[in-house]
Design goal:
The protein is built from nine helices and eight strands. The chain has about 250 residues and is of the alpha+beta class. It has a four-stranded antiparallel beta sheet with strand order 1-4-8-2. Strands 3, 5, 6 and 7 form a four-stranded antiparallel beta sheet that branches. β5 and β6 form a beta hairpin. It is globular, with a radius of gyration of 22 Å. The two termini are about 25 Å apart. The relative contact order is 0.16.
């Protein structure tokens, strides 16, 4: 099954974008070719740009605090596994403490003159070529293990943010129940009556060769399926599409 996710607000959209950047960073840093590490460094700077533009640290801390409050209230409900609940609360406290102990995220990377120079050159098309930045070219000639360790050292200050963000999204994803649905003539609509969700998750069989286009507000959820034509333009699906849906909210 292929999973598609849709954020129902800008805060969750930002978290998903940052998660995507971390996943791309972790993938390319494992490669040995210098071109993989070029992508890793560019992605690292993308993460710094997001942290510069938004109070990402504050938003994640607020989410963790809210989720801790929701879980703490579950103690009043009968049938709750208190051992599992305590383990989850401890995990939240650990992530919250590590992230809140930081100052400005990635400040050491901003203070690194060589990285700051490289970051500036990356904004110029072809600006990191051998003729423009020979020191960067020389770094790429080092053994892969050395380059990997350098990147891991640069990523280390961002790890408290990643761990807290990953926990926040895991709790959000786990909050939804998965139900079987059918999009008749390629369209599905569900009235909400004022209930607000933070994320929609849709699973679809790869055999359908279709993808969902989703939207939601406090009144209704829409899921419309489309397929790409020979020019890759989306075209509406007119057949019935079975899929699984999860509505997530903490």
């Amino acid at each position: 099954m292929i999973l598609y996710e849709y954020p129902c607000n800008e805060r969750v959209r930002s978290l998903l974008r940052v998660e995507y950047l971390f996943e791309r960073l972790f993938f390319f840093v494992q490669g040995e070719d210098a071109h993989y590490h070029q992508v890793s460094i560019a992605t690292l700077f993308d993460l710094l740009d997001i942290c510069d533009r938004t109070d990402l640290r504050g938003a994640v801390l607020q989410d963790l605090e809210r989720q801790r409050g929701v879980l703490s209230n579950l103690r009043r409900h009968p049938g709750v596994n208190l051992t599992t609940l305590d383990e989850m609360l401890a995990e939240i406290r650990e992530a919250y403490t590590a992230l809140s102990a930081q100052g400005r995220i990635g400040q050491g990377l901003r203070d690194n003159e060589w990285l700051a120079s490289l970051r500036g050159r990356l904004s110029i098309p072809g600006g990191t070529s051998q003729i423009d930045m020979p020191s960067y070219f020389s770094w790429q000639l080092k053994p892969a293990s050395v380059r990997q360790q350098d990147i891991k050292n640069w990523v280390a200050p961002l790890m408290p943010l990643y761990k807290a963000l990953a926990l926040t999204l895991r709790l959000l994803r786990d909050s939804g129940d998965v139900v079987d649905c059918v999009a008749q003539n390629g369209q599905y609509q569900e009235m909400l009556g004022g209930k607000i969700f933070q994320m929609l998750r849709v699973w679809i069989s790869p055999d359908c060769q279709a993808f969902p286009e989703m939207s939601a507000n406090k009144y209704v959820i829409w899921v419309r399926f489309a397929m790409q034509d020979n020019e890759l333009k989306p075209q509406p699906v007119t057949s019935d599409i079975p899929f699984k849906l999860s509505r997530c909210n903490v």
